[in-house]
């Protein structure tokens, strides 16, 4: 380079610029490594996620999936106040309990025999619709002459047909 | 452990989702923006009174920027997914701005630091040997050109970078205010003034931080505290705090005067849940008192003994640092203390000491930039050029 040229003193600037460029290129390359392949196919998310969710095994079977083995509970429940509440909401997904293809029991179904189960839906809260049955649990149990124990609700209510 | 509630709250109004970490994030970015402004006053506008601070302010901005994202990462349930906002931003959300603004500002700041300290780096490389020499030679990118022409070029580039940096610092911080200001469901946040208020309070906190750090650093190094630097910073601090307080008050006065339905909630919020942090801290203790103290410093500058000036600016700066923290708290936490239906309140919010996003975590995160600053000072002394 011409020794008179002012650029002779800009060597460090060129090095810095090249380094910056290299970093930017590395960032872009790095980004392309990290961006999932199907990103943006339908919108700002991973397109393959849709298929993945679709292909997940179905775990819930609905009330009818219990009927063939628990016809007594099924019938009692269908005729009671809880008819609109799914068995699996209080117990668990059928797939955890039964291999539906083989028709065999694979594990015990959870049974939540506790006040908390009922409070999940019936605890009095400002935010619940006013016409939904809800109680001040403690006051409710005591005023009906019961004892306020962890499984108090079951003294007077059958979870499958509570009234 | 249910918080005390009054009136009607939706179930998702009950929990304070944006915790102390979201208070720390705008606080730290604000400090960056303010410190950067001070360094630019010297590097771009050539205000000689800031010369003792030009480099130090730059180093402070870099150290605080380095941890600015940390509170956010700690807030995320899945910190490893935080990178997604940078790799796959969704531009229909304002949050997508983060990666671009943060990364580009970081690059500008790094480059500026490099050009400002380049000669020091080369000197150190030349004076040392072994591993240290290697390290500094690599930092200098292997070019040892300290000719006057090269230095003149450095200064020119520094000025350009510092000039680019000003709007970028404003964007980065204004954007943080925008995130709140653009939430139309929340009357305590939703105002176009929000980004502006955030910016001015950022300047206040950044200058205040520098006044404190500068005085402490000079004491530790046994160097004299430049009276011109302190009185100039006091003037700028006074100006910015007046603007910032004015706008904070204006926003409240607008709401109060308009008497729209949200005033019901906000007036209650200010006089109950936020009475201490807003009235006592943000307005009186951190607002009115420094306003008077700094007013004395600015108006009676000529008749004032250095020790008194230093003490008064120090006290006002500490109070203002608290004021800005209180302001961030009031915005972030205050906005989550009432129901979106505007008919109910959460009565208190006390962050836990040892929780993941608790007080200790916030203090630790806030401590890191000071450690970084000490390390920076060890590697590249920011005041050495003043000694000779």
From TrEMBL, chain A:
Report TM segments: 12-30
Q: Where is the signal peptide?
A: none
Q: Which UniProt keywords apply?
A: Membrane, Signal, Transmembrane, Transmembrane helix
The keyword Transmembrane is annotated on this UniProt entry:
yes
Name listed for the protein in its UniProt record: Cytochrome C
Q: Which organism is it from?
A: Candidatus Sulfomarinibacter kjeldsenii
UniProtKB/TrEMBL annotation, chain B:
Q: Does the keyword Phosphoprotein apply?
A: no
Q: Among its keywords, does the record have Transmembrane?
A: yes
Kindly list the residue ranges recorded as spanning the membrane. 20-44, 56-74, 94-117, 160-181, 193-216, 236-257, 277-300, 312-338, 358-376
Organism superkingdom: Bacteria
Q: Which InterPro entries match?
A: Electron_transfer_protein (IPR052049), NrfD-like (IPR005614)
Keywords of the record: Cell membrane, Membrane, Transmembrane, Transmembrane helix
Can you say where in the cell this protein is located? Cell membrane
Instruction: Spell out the family assignment given in the record's similarity comment.
Output: Belongs to the NrfD family.
Q: Under which name does UniProt file this protein?
A: Polysulfide reductase NrfD
Q: Taxonomic lineage per UniProt? A: Bacteria, Pseudomonadati, Acidobacteriota, Thermoanaerobaculia, Thermoanaerobaculales
């Amino acid at each position: 380079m011409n020794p008179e040229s002012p650029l002779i003193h800009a060597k460090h600037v060129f090095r810095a610029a090249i380094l910056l460029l290299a970093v930017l290129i590395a960032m872009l390359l790095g980004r392309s490594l990290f961006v999932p392949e199907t990103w943006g196919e339908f919108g700002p998310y991973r397109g393959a996620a849709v298929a993945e969710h679709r292909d997940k095994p179905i775990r819930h079977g609905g009330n009818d999936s219990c009927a063939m083995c628990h016809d007594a509970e099924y019938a009692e429940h269908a005729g009671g106040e809880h008819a609109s509440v799914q068995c699996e909401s209080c117990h668990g997904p059928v797939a955890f309990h039964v291999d539906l293809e083989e028709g065999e029991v694979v594990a015990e179904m959870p049974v939540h025999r506790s006040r908390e189960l009922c409070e999940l839906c019936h605890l009095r809260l400002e935010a619940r619709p006013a016409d939904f049955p809800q109680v001040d649990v403690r006051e409710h149990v005591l005023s009906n002459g019961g004892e306020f124990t962890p499984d108090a609700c079951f003294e007077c209510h059958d979870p499958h047909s509570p009234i | 452990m249910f918080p005390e509630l009054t009136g009607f709250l939706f179930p998702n109004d009950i929990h304070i989702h944006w915790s102390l970490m979201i208070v720390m994030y705008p606080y730290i970015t604000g400090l960056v923006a303010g410190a950067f402004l001070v360094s630019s006053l010297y590097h771009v506008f050539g205000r000689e009174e800031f010369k003792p601070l030009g480099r130090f302010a730059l180093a402070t901005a870099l150290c605080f920027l380095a941890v600015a994202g940390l509170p956010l990462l700690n807030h995320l349930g899945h910190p490893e997914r935080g990178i997604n906002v940078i790799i796959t931003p969704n531009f229909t959300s304002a949050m997508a701005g983060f990666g671009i603004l943060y990364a580009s500002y970081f690059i500008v700041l790094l480059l500026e630091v490099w050009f400002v300290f380049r000669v020091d780096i080369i000197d150190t490389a030349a004076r040392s040997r072994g591993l240290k020499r290697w390290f500094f030679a690599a930092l200098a990118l292997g070019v040892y050109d300290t000719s006057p022409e090269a230095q003149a070029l450095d200064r020119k580039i520094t000025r350009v970078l510092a000039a680019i940096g000003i709007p970028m610092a404003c964007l980065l911080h204004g954007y943080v205010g925008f995130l709140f200001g653009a939430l139309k469901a929340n009357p305590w946040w939703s105002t176009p003034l929000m980004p502006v208020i955030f910016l001015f309070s950022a300047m206040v906190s950044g200058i205040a931080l520098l006044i404190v750090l500068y005085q402490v650093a000079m004491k530790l190094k046994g160097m004299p505290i430049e009276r011109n630097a302190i009185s100039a910073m006091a003037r700028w601090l006074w100006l910015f705090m007046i603007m910032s307080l004015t706008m904070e008050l204006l926003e409240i006065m607008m709401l109060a005067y308009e008497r729209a339905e949200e005033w019901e909630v906000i007036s209650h919020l200010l006089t109950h849940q936020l009475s201490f942090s807003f009235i006592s801290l943000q307005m009186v203790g951190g607002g009115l008192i420094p306003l008077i103290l700094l007013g004395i410093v600015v108006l009676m500058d000529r008749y004032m003994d250095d020790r008194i000036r230093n003490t008064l600016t120090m006290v006002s700066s500490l109070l203002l640092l608290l004021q800005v923290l209180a302001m961030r708290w009031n915005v972030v936490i205050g906005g989550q203390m009432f129901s979106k239906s505007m008919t109910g309140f959460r009565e208190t919010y006390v962050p836990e000491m040892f929780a993941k996003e608790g007080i200790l975590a916030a203090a630790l995160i806030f401590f890191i930039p000071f450690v970084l600053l000490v390390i920076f000072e060890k590697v590249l002394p920011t005041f050495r050029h003043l000694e000779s």
